[in-house]
Amino acid sequence: MVKVGSSERSYTVDSNWEKLPPGWEAPMAAVAVDSKDRVYGFNRGIHKVIIFDKDGNYLDHWKDVDFIFPHAIYADDDDNIWIVDRDAGQVLKYTSDGELLMSIGERGYRSDTGADNSVFTSDGFKDVTHAGEPFNLPAGVAVASSGDVFVADGYANCRVHRFDSEGNHILSWGEPGQGKGQFMLPHGVSIDVHGTVLVSDRENNRIQAFDQDGTFLSEWATGLIGPALVWQDSIGDGFVPEHNGGNFSVLSSVGDQIARWGGGTIYFLSRSGWGQ
Q: Which of 141, 150, 143, 148 has its CA nearest to residue 165?
């Protein structure tokens, strides 16, 4: 097996980890891990959500679910599973066995941001001229300890939206650009142990930190190339898959680089998950 990382953060790659039923394919868009170490793979193939144990053994899959473009998946502290269906324009909350509990966003609706809403593309962020309401091709989701839901609405918008636990919209922030609090494809969102909102501003090659009301706190750059998400462990180190660079970085709690490796397609297992 191949080893990656540094002396401080060293890992062994298991390229044959997942054990699928015969004949199944699993082009995974995103993965998440719940409190019982069950791994949920969000799949762009036939079987949309496949569940594995921590050793990669197949456990189950969700039946009777229909997603247009699987993008991100997240397991909250109560083991509810949150789905971002990018092209449907929805964020969906499920039980761990696939029962729908709540949906945020109207299926098929796209807000006015200046982008061409007749086209579904990963480059729509280039045409955004102004911020729009929820949603226009959302990318990522995270849930705070309060139950509030944060959505990175990035592929054809430039906003982070906050909702309460019932799905009611509270506030939004962001506009197109490269300044503080501005975004070019806010792709991932996560909440650290202090309640800080970390937004992966992918095409600006940085991570921006905010309080939960959207006030800018700080910026991490550290030579990142298209960060897709940042997830922090219990000691505050951040794990960042770099979408555009094909790298994977480990950062300190203040954004200093601890380790980096890569040069290929990245799939990142974490409690918060990640989508391409």
A: 148
